[in-house]
Amino acid sequence: xxxxxxxxxxxxxxxxxxxxxxxxxxxxxxxxxxxxxxxxxxxxxxxxxxxxxxxxxxxxxxxxxxxxxxxxxxxxxxxxxxxxxxxxxxxxxxxxxxxxxxxxxxxxxxxxxxxxxxxxxxxxxxxxxxxxxxxxxxxxxx
Length: 142
Description:
This protein has 142 residues and is mostly helical.
């Protein structure tokens, strides 16, 4: 019986109230501050050991980065609509398509340079069958 009363008694830990976050930081402000915390010590460390001309350019680029991230932090992400993001999404999608096409060209160059004796059918049989199988399964849904 004595144990029950002790178990239900309020303790000092139950009475502690944690201070809530007074201000929430924007993600772009966090990015700006984090980048600056990493960049500024790096610039300060490398500038003395670089040649003077390169050191001046390095510091100028650092100040440009400060200005860029300051402007970036002022952007309110909540006010950007889907319609405003449409051109950027199209560009990113086209970048992926372009990169895929470039990798196909690199594979073709590799095959034609290192294995010129292979015909197109033999190349597909040895090197492309995974990709052709993947595409055919993706298109047909099997």
